[in-house]
């Protein structure tokens, strides 16, 4: 296999953007993330603004949307490690476009109620699990390990561009037009992602399969053992779990707080949420520079504390939209910038310490550990909003966001220096030893 083959690990030269297949991957991932971020705002806003859903039912909708992470992440990791990531991503895009297309038809026919939204949310969430695991594994098969930070910075930068347009477009369409058109916009982006990723031409090498394939359950167990056995990956999983649980709890209250306490229309809600996009773009640029200058540990702990703590500025807000919207834009900009800096840095650490034949399972295991509790978090957010009120509930859930940087500060992540750690020794395809054993 030539040196420019997808999967060789040496495919992309010094200039990542000179590689046409990397550009196709990045463009497809951008469109996919744009569709995903639009749907994450469109479906709850339709429930709140069109169906007049209360806090408890909104929590159920968001829990159903996130449940596939808990149910399917480990299976997706075991599956992706044995198949071509391009195929997985293309099928996931086609499935999500079809699910949203069915919701558009339901809306046109006037039968788009909460049960239909629940079905669509679960389907899109399930296929997104497979896409997200696959695109993370695809990068490792495309670039050298010393290019992972820059490659992740590029891909996460494209995700930032999606965050700029997705929430703003979703909020505007739900507010000004109709539910079917708002949903159709998300479906269109998944079609664009399908077309772009399908154009990747290089054959992709996948990790060599054993003559007798091991059962999925055993492969899942290997992924769990690998992550639990590595101190850095274990810390990443715990910090991610603390962050995602707190974020899910807060966002359920947040999506109700903006229209019902601050009385913001859908357009203003979309604008406020979209501010995370340009912030995340800045965060992606900083991620390519700050860890090498100040050290990965310092950047992770400091950034997480600042980015999560800024959400405490939201609960005290009062006044007209002319006052509250600029503050919300500023808060979300900082949250997006710092959050993206942490995401890119953590992903580079995770990919650096993981062997090629474990990338899918490691990503899926950390996704499972990190986001598996988000459905419970969403339900808890709805409960707190009903029990304590939206303003108090938002204050409590925003304070809970500080748990993640506390976990990082007490873990081996805080002691990382200016260079990425080496991969774990060996492979789980046979006998395996982790570093430190």
In whole angstroms, the N-to-C terminal distance is 34 Å
Structural class category? mainly alpha
Question: Which bin fits the share of residues in helices?
Answer: over 70%
Provide mean pLDDT, rounded.
Answer: 79
Outline the biggest β-sheet.
none
In what range is the share of β-strand residues? under 5%
* Unreliably modeled segments: 1-14, 426-437
From the spread of the alpha carbons, the general shape counts as globular
Order of helices and strands: HHHHHHHHHHHHHHHHH
Number of strand elements: 0
How would you describe this structure to a colleague?
The chain has helices spanning 20-50, 55-80, 85-108, 114-142, 148-176, 179-197, 216-229, 231-260, 266-274, 276-287, 290-294, 296-309, 321-352, 359-371, 374-388, 390-400, 403-409. The protein has 437 residues and is mainly α. Helix 7 (216-229) crosses helix 8 (231-260), helix 8 (231-260) runs antiparallel to helix 16 and helix 9 (266-274) runs parallel beside helix 13. It contains 17 helices and no strands. The model is unreliable at 1-14 and 426-437 (pLDDT under 50). The chain is 73% helix and 0% strand.
Characteristics:
437 residues; mainly alpha; 17 helices; globular; disordered N terminus; disordered C terminus
Give me the secondary-structure topology.
Layout: H1 20-50, H2 55-80, H3 85-108, H4 114-142, H5 148-176, H6 179-197, H7 216-229, H8 231-260, H9 266-274, H10 276-287, H11 290-294, H12 296-309, H13 321-352, H14 359-371, H15 374-388, H16 390-400, H17 403-409
Summary, kept brief:
The chain is mainly alpha-helical.
């Amino acid at each position: 296999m030539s040196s420019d083959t997808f999967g060789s690990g040496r495919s992309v030269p010094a200039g990542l953007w000179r590689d046409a297949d990397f550009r196709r991957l990045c463009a497809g991932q951008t469109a996919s993330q744009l569709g995903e971020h639009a749907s994450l705002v469109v479906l709850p806003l339709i429930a709140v603004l069109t169906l007049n859903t209360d806090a408890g039912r909104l929590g159920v909708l968001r829990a159903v949307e996130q449940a596939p992470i808990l149910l399917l992440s480990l299976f997706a990791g075991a599956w992706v490690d044995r198949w071509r990531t391009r195929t997985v991503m293309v099928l996931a895009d086609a499935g999500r476009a079809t699910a949203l297309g069915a919701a558009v038809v339901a809306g046109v026919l006037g039968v788009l109620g909460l049960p239909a939204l629940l079905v669509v949310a679960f389907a899109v969430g399930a296929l997104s699990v497979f896409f997200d695991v696959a695109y993370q594994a695809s990068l490792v098969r495309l670039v050298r390990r010393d290019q992972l930070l820059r490659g992740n910075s590029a891909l996460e930068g494209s995700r930032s561009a999606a965050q700029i347009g997705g929430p703003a477009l979703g909020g505007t369409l739900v507010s000004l037009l109709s539910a079917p058109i708002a949903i159709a916009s998300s479906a269109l982006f998944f079609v664009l992602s399908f077309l772009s990723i399908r154009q990747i031409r290089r054959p992709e090498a996948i990790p060599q399969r054993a003559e007798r394939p091991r059962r999925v359950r055993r492969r899942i167990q290997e992924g769990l053992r690998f992550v639990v056995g590595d101190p850095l990956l274990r810390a990443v999983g715990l910090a991610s779990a603390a962050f995602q649980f707190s974020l899910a709890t807060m966002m359920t209250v947040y999506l109700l707080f903006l229209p019902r306490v601050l009385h913001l229309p859908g357009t203003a809600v979309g604008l406020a949420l979209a501010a995370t996009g340009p912030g995340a773009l800045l965060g992606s640029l900083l991620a390519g520079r700050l860890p090498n200058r100040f050290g990965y540990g310092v950047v992770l702990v400091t950034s997480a504390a600042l980015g999560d703590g800024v959400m405490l500025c939201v609960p005290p807000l009062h006044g007209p939209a002319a006052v509250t919207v600029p503050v919300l834009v500023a808060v979300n900009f900082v949250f997006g910038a710092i959050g993206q800096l942490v995401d890119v840095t953590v992903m580079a650490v995770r990919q650096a310490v993981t062997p090629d034949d474990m990338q899918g399972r490691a990503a899926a295991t950390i996704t499972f550990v990190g986001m598996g509790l988000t459905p419970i978090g969403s339900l808890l957010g709805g409960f707190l909003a009903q029990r304590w009120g939206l303003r108090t509930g938002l204050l409590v859930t925003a304070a809970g966001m500080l748990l993640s940087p506390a976990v990082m500060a007490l873990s081996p992540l805080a002691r990382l220096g200016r260079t990425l750690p080496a991969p774990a020794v060996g492979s789980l395809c046979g006998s395996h030893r982790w570093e430190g054993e």
